[in-house]
TrEMBL record:
Organism in which the protein naturally occurs: Tilletia horrida
InterPro entries: ARM-like (IPR011989), ARM-type_fold (IPR016024), HEAT6 (IPR052107)
Compositional bias segments (type: Polar residues): 132-143
Region listing for Disordered, in residue ranges: 119-143
UniProt feature coiled coil, ranges: none
Protein name: DUF4042 domain-containing protein
Signal peptide: none
Top-level lineage group: Eukaryota
């Protein structure tokens, strides 16, 4: 029904007065018509005349609508007209929650309890049947499915808005009922628990088929959406886990529903439940994996939407129960290959490829040896899946295939995997090339880079140094082999496409980070990395530092890691490596002093902190570094004294607290470095002298930070 000019001209007071008058009459149809018109007015731009963006007006309207709804629910006769009017009242409240003042629920938490408390008014038919066994009196109000469906939708809206208002942050999920003296957290938790119980009873009845009414698709879908909203509404881990355990049994049953839309919705909720439950397991009788694999085995184009959600649920199961999913690797790879070869849906093929990629990455990260020991049939199927995915017509599928390449290479399929990696690095679609470049960094981050990039599975640090060289070569020239300089194509690190260059820069910085960690953990001088020529790496990082802020962040991170790997000084002060080291330090100083983006200054401070962990680096810049100039002829001096001065200035003058903190951490690391056994005593003396020269400034910085902490402390 469209709104009339008279409706548009009404004020909020006139609307509420009219609804109040109709509430007391016996004309339920007239009340429904008025509620529908009011809902339309709220939901359209015409609501600006009602001033519902103001808290007082929204709260007044909500109070009136709740009174109308309660009066309808308490009616002495259950007529079709009352049912229709009740449904309209609920939908009107939902519209007000969505389009009214954002402060409606935040400033008055009582409204959340009042709205959520309405769920008790909508008892399930199953509960009503049990009550009828103990009483000869009929129910005062028999609610129709449309009203109950609208009520569940109301709960969903109230939960979403309460979450946005921050009311779900500290809920206390206790079994005890609240009293006048209990906290808001306990009250909110009690109301939310009531909603959870109501939604769970609907889902249980729907999944068991014990009641035809509760099996209504509309009611079931509303309950599934409310369950998803309830799980995601609170950041409280314990609450999310308990809620997931309650909802999982009926949701798993609904995943096998003959109604495809219900099954798809159930799988979508199951993904959320698996993510929320963490390592908490459901009852042994509940087997989500069986339901997922059973649905994935179903054929038929009309079930494509169900299988897409089932593949996504499988990805969530990998994080929760990798061991069980790993045991089904062969079946999963066969199902995925079947989808890649037969499905016409790009989204379905991409979902299947993504699930296989998640499984392989998880296994390569957490249990690489078992992945290497997979039987020949499984490896053959996985190889076929990778080949099919990497050649798929859809860029989405090829992007997901890129995530499979290096885990499969680590499992022993280096030959095929390496060829496909080179092919995808040069793919005509930028997102595919970017995904392939990112996969290299992921392999280093997860710890299987050596097994993946080299033709041997030896994981010694010597192999990691070779893997770093190969990974860098792939990002630079897109091949495992050295190419003549004149024929080197412009590959990932020098790409003109921003997304490719960003992913490659992240991978490059991550590679350097992980290798620096390996050097620090070796405690043996890391002789293999000492033979590594750092000049091309430092040059690549230096070039990234000259790009935009996002690329510069990766460049600065790489510089910090590379300086942390600087080897013992054997080749003379004027070598190319020594020159690049001083250029790199100057770049860090410049970024710390003049970086416009706070992230740039923060990354520069963090890079200094990491480099100060390396005694060889400190020796390089500490031995007669007071009068050294960088190789570009800049007036910037490269000395410990100048670096300490820059860090101290940052602590005093930078406006961003995080940047100040990073500079403080860098100086703290420099103090700690004086205890390094490999550090020359002369350098130790220089460090102490540099810090002593800044003592007064640092003491003033401490006073300022203490004062700031007192101001920030709660009174």
């Amino acid at each position: 029904m469209g709104s009339t000019n008279d409706d548009d001209a009404r004020t909020l007071s006139e609307w509420l007065e009219s609804l109040g008058a109709l509430q007391g009459s016996a004309d339920a149809e007239a009340l429904k018509t008025a509620l529908d018109a009011f809902q339309e007015r709220i939901s359209t731009h015409a609501s600006s005349g009602l001033h519902l963006d103001e808290y007082a007006h929204s709260d007044e309207a909500l109070s009136a609508l709740v009174r109308v709804l309660r009066a309808l629910l308490q009616g002495q006769s259950a007529s079709h007209a009352l049912t229709r009017a009740s449904t309209s009242a609920v939908r009107c409240i939902i519209a007000l929650i969505v389009h009214g003042s954002p402060a409606l629920l935040k400033q008055n938490p009582r409204r959340v309890h009042e709205l959520a408390g309405l769920s008790s008014e909508f008892e399930s038919e199953e509960s009503a049947t049990e009550a009828g066994k103990n009483s000869r009196q009929p129910r005062s109000s028999e609610q129709a499915l449309s009203v109950r469906t609208a009520a569940v939708q109301l709960c969903e809206s109230a939960l979403e808005q309460a979450s946005k208002a921050g009311l779900m942050i500290a809920i206390d999920d206790r079994p005890t009922r609240p009293t006048a003296f209990t906290s808001l957290a306990v009250r909110t938790g009690s109301v939310v628990a009531d909603i959870r119980s109501c939604v769970a009873s609907i889902l249980t009845a729907s999944s068991s088929g014990s009641n035809i009414a509760d099996g209504s698709p509309n009611l079931t879908h509303a309950a599934l959406k409310a369950a998803k909203a309830l799980v995601s509404a609170s950041p409280n881990v314990g609450f999310r886990q308990r809620t997931a355990l309650i909802f999982t049994p009926p949701v798993v049953s609904l995943c096998s529903s003959n109604d495809s839309s219900t099954a798809a919705a159930a799988f979508s909720v199951l993904s959320e439940l698996m993510n929320a439950s963490g390592q908490a397991k459901s009852s042994p009788d509940i087997q989500p994996l069986e339901s997922v694999l059973s649905q994935l085995s179903q054929s038929g184009a009309h079930l494509s939407v169900v299988r897409i959600q089932a593949w996504k649920a499988l990805q969530a199961l990998i994080d929760q129960d990798l061991q069980s999913v790993s045991a089904e690797t062969q079946q999963i790879s066969e199902l995925s290959l079947q989808i890649l070869q037969s499905s016409s849906s790009d989204l379905e093929r991409q979902a299947a490829m993504s699930a296989v990629a998640s499984l392989l990455q998880a296994r390569a990260t957490q249990d690489l040896s078992s992945l290497m020991d997979e039987n020949e049939a499984t490896q053959l199927t996985l190889n076929g899946t990778l080949v099919a995915g990497s050649s798929d017509i859809s860029p989405l599928v090829r992007c997901s295939a890129a995530d499979c390449i290096l885990p499969l290479a680590a499992a022993g399929l280096q030959g095929t995997a390496h060829d496909i990696l080179v092919k995808l690095l040069r793919d005509s679609e930028a997102p595919v090339s970017a995904a392939a470049a990112r996969a290299i960094g992921v392999a280093f981050d997860a710890g299987y880079a050596s097994a993946a990039l080299l033709m041997s599975a030896d994981e010694r640090s010597s192999r990691l140094a070779e893997a770093l060289t190969l990974g860098f070569r792939l990002l630079q020239i897109g091949t495992f082999e050295n190419a003549p300089a004149s024929k080197q194509p412009r590959e990932a690190l020098s790409s003109q496409t921003s997304i490719i260059k960003m992913r490659a820069a992240w991978s490059f910085a991550t590679m350097c980070d992980k290798c620096a960690d390996a050097v620090a953990a070796a405690h043996d001088g890391s002789t293999t990395f000492e033979r590594l020529d750092l000049v091309p790496f430092l040059q690549a990082a230096e070039q990234l530092c000259g790009e935009d802020d996002r690329l510069a962040a990766s460049g600065l991170r790489a510089l910090g890691a590379l300086l942390r790997m600087v080897p013992r000084h054997n080749s003379g002060r004027n070598s190319a490596e020594a020159g690049m080291i001083f250029v790199s330090v100057t770049t860090l100083q410049r970024a710390l002093r003049h970086g416009k983006d706070p992230k740039t200054r923060w990354n520069a401070g963090a890079a200094f902190e990491r480099s100060f962990e390396n005694a060889h680096f400190l020796h390089r810049i500490g031995s007669d570094g007071n009068d050294s100039k960088n190789s570009r002829g800049s007036d910037d001096t490269v000395s410990l004294r100048a670096i300490v001065n820059d860090l101290t200035t940052t602590i005093m003058l930078d406006k961003m607290f995080k940047v100040k903190l990073t500079a403080l951490q860098a100086l703290t690391q420099l103090c700690t470095a004086t205890a390094l056994p490999d550090l020359d005593r002369g350098v130790v003396t220089l460090i102490r002298a540099s810090l002593t020269a800044q003592r007064d400034t640092l003491q003033q910085a401490k006073v300022d930070l203490d004062a700031r902490a007192e101001e920030a402390a709660p009174s």
